[in-house]
Amino acid sequence: MEEEEDFKPAPQEFFGSPNYPTQPTYKEEIFPPDQPTDLCNEEYPGPLNFEVYIIPNEQKTPWEYSPKLNKIFIGINLKFPVAFSVKTRPNNMKLYVRATPVFSQAQFFQELVHRCIGHQHPQDPTNKGLLPHIFQHIMRCSNEEARYFGDKNEKARLNIVLPLSSPQAGTEIVREFYQFVCKNSCPLGMNRRPIEIIFTLEDQNGQVLGRRIVAVRVCSCPKRDREKEERDAEKSEKASSPQGKKRKLAPAPPSGCDVDAKIYPLNINVLGKHNYLEILRFSRGLMATEILKFEGSSSGGEAPFRKSFDEINALITVFVVITWMFINGAQAQVTFSRDWNPGKRMVENPEFHNTMKTASTICHLLINQVRQLAACENNRGDDLDPGTTTIFSGRR
Ligand SMILES: [Zn+2]
């Protein structure tokens, strides 16, 4: 369902295998520049009639492609084929395909798409045997000659470039395999923001000869999410006239001076464990978005948002662990103290006091939730897995 529940490292053979470059042993000396030129999300077949196909999912594999939305719905760490074709291939001209992930929403288009902190950590199993500059990329390509460009710390867009080989005899397409190694829902990564991949056909100077766009959702329930988004699209089509694909670039992010960091305690009763967890996750996502706005600035303005992020994250972790323990009938005893109060050495801080008051209230709500859960026989708990809670421990 979401990022806590089903993070499973890819099978080891995916990584550290000859499929991925572990050393800079690229054969081609000439490559396009490391950054895309004329980056936009306008479809452009170009002079060579560049086409990109997501090969329909005929077998029972856990990913789906919606032609209606031109969008792939796929789980994390799963390879999927992408087919490229050009109608007229000039002789003696090397062609390259660049895949650049961007945020679909105009207000985030300027921001770089990169992996979340948990997944880009060197200790993450998916990074084993890879060069560090690959860790930040949400996408990977199985082609040995693929090169990974960009660095979020240098504000350079992360993208993958590979030489477009000639199609095999009898076919017109060249097939390459990609996979995503971070989910849309990962906090401090994509953070629930929708993305799309811009595939550009380029010559060795980086001149764009064609451009195709494919929307992506990396999630745990591709089928469910595809059906939901298709239904939503139908509804909005009926409600409004279709709009053009071209979009304006987003305005610059707001400066730090108009940030509202005042604490507003919230005490509401929520029905249902799923809804409760969703509200916590949504709140965490909001805080992560605020933190990301300060990325690269040295103002320190993200501190209150990070504190709130950590607190909400801790609540989620506690809730998931307790739920899991009850659902799995673990032989453990959980003891709650009457309240969550700061220790004696805690400096008096009214804002912190309010937060702890809220946490205390949530603690009581949690106890009630746990009681309800203990009485519930139908929950199997396959959507709750505390094994991943260590990824975001709420400490940095
Ligand atoms: Zn991630």
Question: What descriptors fit this protein?
Answer:
Immunoglobulin-like, disordered C terminus, 396 residues, disordered N terminus, four-stranded antiparallel sheet, seven-stranded mixed sheet, 11 strands, alpha+beta, binds zinc ion, DNA-binding, 2 domains
Describe what this molecule looks like in 3D.
The chain has two domains: 14-223, Immunoglobulin-like (Sandwich), CATH 2.60.40; 258-375, no CATH class. The two termini are 25 Å apart. Residues 1-26, 244-257, 330-352 and 373-396 have low confidence and may be disordered. The protein is an alpha+beta fold. Strand 7 (147-151) and strand 8 form a beta hairpin. It has helices at 222-239, 273-293, 303-327, 350-375, and strands spanning 51-54, 63-66, 71-74, 79-85, 96-103, 139-141, 147-151, 156-163, 174-180, 195-202, 208-218. It is globular and about 70 Å long. It is built from four helices and eleven strands, in the order E-E-E-E-E-E-E-E-E-E-E-H-H-H-H. Helices cover 23% and strands 17% of the residues. It has a seven-stranded mixed sheet. The site of zinc ion has 8 residues, from loops. Zinc ion is lined by residues 115-116, 118-119, 182-183, 186, 189.
